[in-house]
Amino acid sequence: MAEALLSPILEQLTKIVAQQVHEEVTLVGGVKKQVDKLKSNLIVIQSVLEDAERKQVKDKAVRDWVDKLKDVCYDMDDVLDEWSSAILTWKMEEAEENTRSLQKMRCSFLGSPCFCLNQVVRRRDIALKIKEVCEKVDDIAKARAIYGFELYRATDELQRITSTSLVDESIVSGRDDEREAVVSKLLGESIQEAGYVEVISIVGMGGIGKTTLAQLAFNDAEVTAHFKKKIWVCVSDPFDEVRIAKAILEALQRGAPNLVELESLLQSVSESIKGKKFLLVLDDVWTENHGQWEPLKLSLKSGAPGSRILVTTRKHSVATMMGTDHMINLERLSDELCRSIFNQVAFHKRSKDECERLTEIGDKIANKCKGLPLAAKVLGGLMQSKRTREEWEQVLSSELWELEHVERGIFPPLLLSYYDLPSVVRRCFLYCAMFPKDYEMVKDELVKMWMAQGYLKETPSRDMELVGEEYFQVLAARSFFQDFKKYNRYDLREDMRFKMHDIVHDFAQFLTKYECLTMDVNNLGEPTTEISCERVRHLSMKLSEETSFPVSICKAKGLRSLLINTGDPSLGAALPDVFKQLTCIRSLNLSMSSIEEIPNEVGKLIHLRRLNLASCRELESLPETMCDLCNLQSLDVTGCRSLNELPRAIGKLVKLRHLWIDGSSVAFMPKGIERITCLRTLDEFIVCGGGENESKAANLRELRNLNHIGGSLSIWNLGRGIEDASDAAEAQLKNKKRLLRLVLDFDFNSENGILIEVLRPPSDLENLTISSYGGLELPYWMMTLTRLQVLTLGHCVNLEVLPPLGRLPNLESLELSGLKVRSLGVGFIGIKSVNEGEIARFNAFPKLKKLWMWNLKEVEEWDGIERRVGEDANTTSISIMPQLRELRIENCPLLRALPDYVLAAPLQELTVTGCPILRKRYGEEEMGGDWHKISHIRNIYI
């Protein structure tokens, strides 16, 4: 009966689809013409923008025209991306349709007409959008003649610079006298009145070096020794009392406070510094409101006499309001000092002839810095890439020097350096305006965000990530970035952190006021800038736990980047509407939020390229609709400790390049991951241990074609699942040439030896960890890893004999724990025998700097190599661990002595715990007979 009713409906529906498909042929032809027209117009627009951008800083009308054109360009980009995304989705859906089993043919037949009709409707919708954008472009392009713009063919080729290393912050600042003055005020005798804290203020214009001077004083050795506690807080605008109090507590207590109320925070500050001599630096203060400062100042009265508050500000009125006892006015540098700073950067690694030829004109350029060290550094970075005198003269004669009205002359040097950059690098720099002042950016994160915006173009020889690295180095060399801190993560994941000078940040926001916005909890509900939300493209938001998500953000329909910093549990409830409205988002950062799930509506974000969910500790699930994000490039769920599974259809994310799951509770890898052949990062692969997840889990062999994986890969649960040696062999780890670090975690099974042999890594591996290994021997391939720098062998409970690790030529760090070895002899060092002549010339562990041995409960002997062959040192050359700096031995109760070559090594640090025999022999307190053999070591802990 049901089939009789459905049959005429299906017949009619099929006729409708046929008609629509016929119309679609004509429509699609029109779409392709419109797409070609858009691309052609885009080329002209980009050329015109090059000229218009240079004129907009002087002509407000030009700037308004440029802003309108940029808006249309965003629309153009979005509709073209929607078109390409739709085509990719349809191809994938058609492929899945064709692979369905015969048992599902009837269901497929019932669905096919609807599927086709949906596709037709979608194509028509996109075609209409493209037509609308074309009309807008035509209207705006007509105004080109009014302003007389010329086609400016800018090159995207990077000019060679003499060095792409990060800017050296030790460049002479010329502030020796001021530094001595500040240090003197910090260390000088203080008013002994109870509860009185002296305030010292450094006052000067932007870019003159206030923060640098404060840093020099803060890090001075005498200052560090003088104060019990040192705290640095970047204040900026607005003056957020709660944030400042939290920052002070975090520095004092080495952790973020759980308090949220200002009164409770200030009470805690008072208790934490009670009776302690402290130095508090408040950098970049703007507020003149005494009511904001007074409660914080009162909470600091409990410190010991001699405590100091050091303030930097651009305004004398701020210093007066804060009750300054000593004011240091920072004046402009002399032309001579500016030339010195400029020359150190501009003439870096140039020949003597080149320096002589360009010095005269270089002095003239440096004199235009008007005594501002930041300007001298920026201009020096600009001139690094200029090789000819003509290029230097062009900079000297630029009309941009006439823009004296902007920031008292600091912007012209920035504009010169900015416009000298290729357009592709310029937009990467401007993107940074979305972050708050003093925001600590992470290079790896920033490059992924640039990728998400389409700023980095891949070439056959270079991945997008490498292009982004190059752009970062260029901006760093031009002094657009500063305060670099490099963190050496164990997994080799890049963690370079840095900031922008506040003037550089002002400059970036000056050029992007309609596109980038930072929103803070203190000014929610108030206009934060002149612009409305509708114009914003990149937004960072900071909300307190008491502040609900502002629905007004959903008006920003064209938003492309959204970074939300909040612990507000109600954020999860707001996300469905956010995802429905803000469908243009390409980069979404919800890291460290308290959301419990990602709503199904995330599937509507078809443009999304980067999704950062790191440290969302309450996050329990990811919806299957996430697998509809066909453009997704990066997914980060590190630290999501409540997340047990990844979406089952993750294989549909064919453009995914980076997947981080470290620190989550993901129990297995879903089937189909082998389809993501674009993957550059897969930090973990968890082998399913059987059970209910077995039918959903990927096999090790799915790694076979993922040969672009680089960086770090950890494979967990080896031997615990249904995998055998043939599955492991199919993984073809040796073909992952970009892999630098590998962790192989086993199940203590004695048959692990068969499995590990076929898991041979690439020969260029630099870091290897083998844990919970149950085999009797280590694999033969280990000694072929000639570039290995770090080796960790942990809990290999059946391992009695070590291979000749001393023969690994580049090994720098070796950690041994939980092994069954009884002796570390000549085999461990790499000497086969000690017959005369065989070790006359031998170099073992030539680069080893760190050696840790933990829980080697059966090791008794650690043999030395005495000079028994040719007593004459001129005829015998035995070198073992010649660079060893750090030795740590813990819980090795049977170990009797340290070998002679260790005692002769240039050790800087020796730690021995849980080793009673060694303690008796070498301990100073025990009057050990061999204490004199180690007493020269700088740091000893026994």
UniProtKB/TrEMBL annotation:
Domain NB-ARC per the UniProt entry, residue ranges: 180-351
Name of the protein in question: Disease resistance protein RGA3
Record SUPFAM superfamilies: L domain-like (SSF52058), P-loop containing nucleoside triphosphate hydrolases (SSF52540)
A biological process from GO: defense response to other organism
Domain Disease resistance protein winged helix: 434-508
Domain of life: Eukaryota
Keyword line: ATP-binding, Leucine-rich repeat, Nucleotide-binding, Plant defense, Repeat
CDD domains (alphabetical): RX-CC_like (cd14798)
A Pfam family of this chain: WHD_DRP
GO molecular function: ADP binding; ATP binding
InterPro entries: Apaf_helical, LRR_dom_sf, LRR_R13L1-DRL21, NB-ARC, P-loop_NTPase, RX-like_CC, Rx_N, WH-like_DNA-bd_sf
UniProt xrefs under PANTHER family: NB-ARC DOMAIN-CONTAINING PROTEIN (PTHR36766:SF45), PLANT BROAD-SPECTRUM MILDEW RESISTANCE PROTEIN RPW8 (PTHR36766)
Location of the Disease resistance N-terminal domain: 6-91
Domain R13L1/DRL21-like LRR repeat region: 700-818
